[in-house]
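Study this pair:
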Amino acid sequence: MLKIRKDICPAGKRAIKCPYKMTPTRLVIHNTANDASAKNEIAYMKNNNKEVSFHFAVDDTEAVQGIELDRNAWHAGDGSGRGNREGIAIEICYSKSGGKRWLKAVENAAELAAKLLKDYGWGTDRVTKHEDYSAKHCPHRILDEYGWNNFLKLIESKMSDGSAAMVPTPTPEKISVIYQVWEDAGNRWLPEVTDLTDYAGLYGKDVCCVYARLTSGNIYYKVHYKGGKWLPEVKNREDYAGLYNKPIDGLMMRTDTGKTIKYAVHLRRSNRWLPFVTGYNENDFNNGYAGILGQEIDGIKIYIEQG
């Protein structure tokens, strides 16, 4: 059975850490993105003067409560929205490095979540992600490695029998790339393409701009335009990479998923596909980017290696 102990934020810090009374309506799951223990996470949260706080930290041996459940905490990035003002925040430790300690922390967090759901008479529909309230990709390692649905199933198993079964080996959720390009002849965005179901572009028509997103996690990318320079990096669909009516001749892509992204381009003038690359380095002509500077691109293919 999971050990749960209290190390409550002192009253003198309430104005900073938990200023409002709260009636909880949901759980909000986080990954800490470092390798501190639950004890140290709570101690750091209590002792600093930042408006950042959370109700529980959970590691491989215990859950430590730092904020009373009838007080709000600042964790969801939505100001006075429902995440911060109605959510019980659970931070899962050791999520920077992962491994056995992190998997045990995930199991313990599922047990804590199951207990809270039972206490409030809720179901797993009340379990939410930090990502649901702000642009932050969190809980990152659950989303990228363990799988959100696998985590919910683990909570359900804890609710049904309360057992402390070993964490099941998760089936990684497939991450797909969805992307599209702007071609200069028709001055238009072409339809989106998913993974290798097709290529993005039209043979003989220069690609000028690229949009890309993932089904889970973040993708970062930038392009080089012919006769010009590498343009600034963009993230997901927060912007597009490129300039209208400036054909691109280089493309670089990376993700924070922990998986390998592979991407290739088709050269218009020589009418050929170049090999897939995996790097992200404008000075690496072999594997750092896709393309040959000076030669226009008219097609792009992208996918995430699932292994």
About this structure: The helical segments are 14-17, 38-47, 82-86, 99-120, 140-146, 148-161. The radius of gyration is 23 Å. The chain has two domains: 3-161, 177-304. Residues 99-120 form the longest helix (22 residues).
